[in-house]
Design a protein that fits this description.
The chain is α+β, with helices and mostly antiparallel strands. The protein contains 2 helices and 2 strands. Strands 1-2 form a two-stranded antiparallel sheet.
Length: 72
C-alpha cells in the first residue's frame, strides 16, 4: 500500500493506492491514449483541439518547475 500527501491550495489530500508503479504507468498510458483518440476524432470532425494539450514550451516549463500538475 502506498500513501502520498498533496497540498492543493489550502486543501490537504492523502492518496492511498494499492497498485504498483508499473500498473499506474500502464493506466496513465491508457488514459492518455484515450484522450488522444478523442482529440483525433474531434480534429477529423473539423474542431480545433490545440488548446487541449500543453505546448512543448509549457511542458518544459512544468518539468523545470517540478510541478505536481505534470504526471509523466
Amino acid at each position: 500500500m502506498r500513501k502520498m500527501n498533496l497540498e492543493v491550495g489550502q486543501a490537504k489530500v492523502e492518496i492511498i493506492s494499492d497498485i504498483t508503479p508499473e500498473e499506474r504507468k500502464i493506466n496513465l498510458k491508457n488514459i492518455y491514449g484515450t484522450i488522444n483518440q478523442i482529440a483525433e476524432n474531434q480534429r477529423l470532425a473539423g474542431n480545433n483541439v490545440d488548446d487541449w494539450f500543453y505546448s512543448k514550451k509549457e511542458l518544459d516549463d512544468l518539468k523545470k518547475n517540478n510541478s505536481r500538475n505534470l504526471i509523466y
